[in-house]
What does this fold into?
Amino acid sequence: MERLFTASFNLGLAVAVWKEPGRDDVSIIIDFSETLNKVQFNENIGSGFLLSPFINPDLKETILIRPDIYFNSSESEIQVNNIPNSTLADTFEYHYNEFTSFHQGKYSSKNSNKKETQEFTNLVEKAVEEIQKEKFKKIVLSRSKEKGLPSGFNPFQFYLQLCQKHPLAFTSLVSHPTLGTWIGATPELLVSVSKDNIFKTIALAATKPATGIQKLNEVVWTQKEIEEQAIVSRYIINCFKSIRLREYEDEGPRTVQAGNLFHLRTDFTVNINEVPFPDLLYRMIKLLHPTSAVCGTPKEPAMNYITEMEKYDRELFTGFLGPININNETSVYVNIRCCKIQSGKVSFFAGAGITKDSVAANELEETNHKMYTLESLFDNLH
Ligand SMILES: C=C(O[C@@H]1C=C(C(=O)O)C=C[C@H]1O)C(=O)O
It folds into this structure.
C-alpha cells in the first residue's frame, strides 16, 4: 500500500488512505483524473472518498476522489476500475516499482509564537462579549500553527504510527493536487449509513484533558460544558425536525475518550427502512454541515463571524471527509485533529467552542491539547 500511495503522491494524483475506528484493515483509493472532481451533491454521486472544505455553500465545493484504483489491506487483489491513459499508466508503474523517498526539511520543536496565541486570546475575548450581547449562543473559534517538517518525513509511515496510536479514531491520509496533503485522527462522525441501512450521527463537544487514570463514568462536567454539548444535540434534533423526521433514537450524553482528551457525546440513529427518506444521508449532510460543534449557533452569523475574524483560512480543517458508497457503506467524518503537510512545513489546527462563560486562557489551552494529538507524534520522530 505504501508503494501505491507514494506513486500517487509523487505523480500529484488525488489519493486517500483511511481506517475506520476499531478496525484493523486500511483502504486506499486513487483517482487518475487530472482535474478537480467537484461533484453535484445528491444520491447520484456514485462512490469514492468525499472531501469538503469548511466553507462550502450549498456543498458546491465538495470533491470526490473516485476509485480508479481501490485496495483494502484485508484483501489480496488490487481493484483496478479504470485504466489511465498509457503515459500515466507507465509513469505510475515506474513510480510504483521505483519507490522513492520523501522531501527533506528541518523540524523545529519550538513553537512559542506569542503573537499568534495572543491574537487567538483576543479573538475569544471579543467573541464572549458578542455572546453576552446575545449575538450568538455558541461560536467555535480556531487557530493554526506551523512547524518545519522533520527531515526525510514519510507521510505513509507517519500515518501508520497514527493508526496505532489512535485505534478508535477515523484516521486518514489524503493527498490532492490542489488541496494539499492532510493527515488526521478524528473522533467526530458527521454521518454514516451501514449496510443494513442504519443512519447515524453524533453530537460531540466539551473537552477535558484525559490525565491520570480516570474512569469514564467518573469524569465530572461543569454546567458550561453540559450546555455547550447540549447546543450541538439540539442543533441535530432541529435538523431532523426541519424535515419532519421524528423516528430517531438518541443515546447519551456520555463521556468518551479521544486520545489525550475526554468529550461528551450523544448518538443519534435512524432506521432508514422505516422512514420515507431513502436520501437521508444527502439531506442530513446538507443540513448538518457545518455543525455547531465546529461552527456555532445560530449557524449563519457564526459562520460570517468566523470568516471575518479568524486570521487564516481553515481550508479542509472542520470540513468533512470519508468513504461514500464503498461496499454499500458510507462513513463521513468531521476533519478535526488533523494537520496539513506542505513544502517542508506542517500546520496544526484546533478550535474550541466559546460560550458566554468561556475564559480565553482556558480555551487557548484546550486548543493546545487538541493540537497535541498530532503534534506529539511529530515531536516523537526525534
Ligand atoms: C473543533 C475541534 O473540536 C470540536 C470542539 C469541541 C469543543 O469545543 O469542546 C470538542 C470536540 C469537537 O467537536 C477541534 O478538535 O479542533
Notes: The first strand starts at residue 14 and ends at 19.
